[in-house]
Structure formats: C-alpha cells, structure tokens
Amino acid sequence: MTPQEDIAGLILAGGRGTRMGHVDKGLQPFRGASMAEHVMRRLAPQVGALAINANQNLDVYAAFGVPVWPDQLTGFEGPLAGLATGMARCATPLLVTAPCDSPFLPHDLVARLRQALDADGAELALAETEEAGPDGVPRIQPQPVFALVRTNALPRLEAYLAGGGRRMDGWYGAIRVARVRFDDAAAFRNINTLDELRQCEPE
Question: Tens of pLDDT along the chain (203 residues)?
Fold first, then answer.
C-alpha cells in the first residue's frame, strides 16, 4: 500500500499505564518487540511520517528513530492532550492517531479513514466497530483513538481543553465527523493488563 505523504502518524504512548501496574505499556515486550514497535510497523507503511507521543522514557522511545513529543499540557492529561500536541507539531495537514497498546491495527486504517474524510468534507474521521453488548445485542463501538484529523481544527480542540474537557470524543460537537465501520473488531483490541499481554502471546 502506498503511504499517504500528507498524513503524519502519531502513536499515543503518553499514559501512566495504571491498569498494567504503572509500567510504560508501549515498551512492554510482545512477540519479539515492544508493543509500540508493533504499532509502528503497522502504521508506518500507511503514512508519510511517524512520531510518538510519550511523557516518560523519552530516550528509549527516541531510540526507535522517530520524533518523540511529550504533551504540551502537564500532568498526564490523557490521549486528547497527545492529539493536540501532535496537531501542533506535525508538518502535514492531516494527522492519524493509534494507541501504543493496539498492535493489531488494520493495514487499511489510514486509507479508509482518508476516503471518508474527503467524501464527507469532514474535519475528523474515526473508526467504529460492531461488538456484542452485555446483553448480547450487537452495538456500535466508537474507536476514538483511531482517528484522522485535519490539523487546522487545532484551535477548536485547544478551546475544549482550555475549558477543562478531556474526553476523547468531547470536542466532536465543534467539528464535522465522518465515521468508518470496520468489520474486524479484533484489529482494534487494546492490551491493558499484563494478563492480557500474556494471553496474546503465541503458544
């Protein structure tokens, strides 16, 4: 697949890893590499440039050979703070995000998000999957950390953050959003705990 040169990819690795025992999730070993490296390998062929959003172990991430951008907001303010940092720092008009704990992300993620973004004249395109709810009934599950955004929407995101908003989907009311349904929900699986990490290792 030809990379889309006007799109930068940002791997979100700026959290504390609380559910994984306060370890850096992106650096946890997984199938011969770190989880963040697996995400890089999936995303790199789809974009023109890559960067990592991280707030700890910056030298370790820098050794992966891509820029490392800490949050501009202090205090581990969540993935939306990482998105704002990426939008402010990337040199392309479009930015796509993926979390460091989702090593199975689709190979056609960027192409499909870009197609929807352009077709709808949207400012942000995000992935959705269909999953069974607690009652067994299928429901639509947004995947807001897998999103493609136009970087000129940054002022509206910054206004939302300045007002104390931190929900990844909380600023969508200020922009036009396109939604893309992906059939393979497992491709968006994130690994939150050490037990889940061990379960995903091959036998």
Answer: 567 999 999 999 987 655 555 668 889 888 788 999 999 999 999 999 999 999 999 999 999 999 999 998 887 778 999 999 999 999 999 999 999 999 999 999 999 999 999 999 999 999 999 987 777 788 899 999 999 999 999 999 999 999 999 898 899 988 999 999 999 999 998 876 555 656 666 54
Q: How many CA atoms lie within 13 A of 53 on its CB side?
A: 36
Fill in the DSSP letter of residue 99. E
- Please tell me the distance from the alpha carbon of residue 108 to that of residue 37, in angstroms, as a whole number: 18
Measure Cα distances from 134 to 117, 138, 180, 191 in Å.
31, 9, 23, 20
The model carries a pTM of 0.90
Q: What angle do CA 75, 26, 199 make, to 5 degrees?
A: 125
Q: How far is the CA of 122 from the CAs of 81, 100, 108, in angstroms? A: 21, 26, 19
